[in-house]
Structures are given as structure tokens and as C-alpha cells.
Amino acid sequence: MEVGSAMTESQTETKSATESATKSKPGQLPVDDVRSLIDACWKAKTITELIPALPKGMKPRYVHVIDAVWHINEPNGQDTGTARVGDVSAFLGVTTPSITKLVGEMADLGLVVKHADATDRRAVTLTLAERGLDIRHIYVEEYHAHLSQLLGGLTSDQCETTVRTLTEALRLMQQDANNR
């Protein structure tokens, strides 16, 4: 027997574990692909942490809410508040209570204005205050324009595939978490 040709029991177990990690049963994603997907999610989180520094007291979530309010109000103009808290939560895919809390904080900071709804006294519509519009201009319009140039080497297909993949992975994992 040649020196070094025999595998120890530990090496055999390691090789077996490695082989099983790369193989999968039909209908299962290989474990190595799962690892790559999770690694990509960590990279995506890091990307979101690279946005320019926000003013003191601003949370990144405020920028998302500001942008949602802007998009919801866009068809009727920014002076006409058609965005409701439920619309914003649906737009962002988060719970209404979490948006209610954020909107309250944002109103206190002068980012959004709450308007009593003429048809439903319990409901309010939202518009962006001047400060909210300024924040959107800097942290959405200008920053996205910068990223458009920076990421110019990526294709629309690459972006769409990434969005579809992450959206579906999130849906499946949330569904799994809710079923546990």
C-alpha cells in the first residue's frame, strides 16, 4: 500500500458530507446553492448599509415610507393626499401597525403631513412635507441616478432575475416561518 493513499475514517466522513452537500434529492435545492443564496442575501444587506449617511434622527425605513407615499400620491400630484397608511403598508409589504408607528414618528419630524379624510373620520391621508420631499430628492432620486451610472454594467435581465429570486425566497421562508 502506498503512503498517503488510504483515507482515514475522518477523511471518508468529510468527503461523504461534502458530496451530500452538493447533491440533492429531486425537488430540493442543493445545499451549496442554499449557502450561495444566503451569502448573496448578506451582500444585499451590506449594499443597503452603504447608502449615504442620513440626517440625525432619520431611520432608513423613513426613506422607504417617503418613497411609497410619493409613488402612491404621484397620479394625483404631491399636493393631493391619496396615500393611506394601509396603502403604504401594502406598497412596502409590511404590517399596517408598523407603518402607523413610523408615520407618527415621521409626522413629528416634519417629514409627512397627516390629513383627516373627508369620507372616513378614522382614516387619514398622507402627503410629504417639504422636508420629506427634500429627503426623497437626495436619498432616492439623486442616489438612484448615481447607482444607475455605477451599476451600468448590469443588465435589466440580471436585475429582474435577482429581484424575482429574492422575492420568491422571502415568500417561501416567511411562509415556512408562519407554519412553524
UniProtKB/TrEMBL annotation:
Residues 31-175 form the HTH marR-type domain. InterPro entries: HTH_MarR-typ, MarR/SlyA-like, WH-like_DNA-bd_sf, WH_DNA-bd_sf. Residues 1-29 are annotated as: Disordered. Gene3D superfamilies: Winged helix-like DNA-binding domain superfamily/Winged helix DNA-binding domain. GO terms for biological process: response to stress. Residues 7-25 have a biased composition (Polar residues). This is MarR family transcriptional regulator. The lineage of its organism: Bacteria, Bacillati, Actinomycetota, Actinomycetes, Bifidobacteriales.
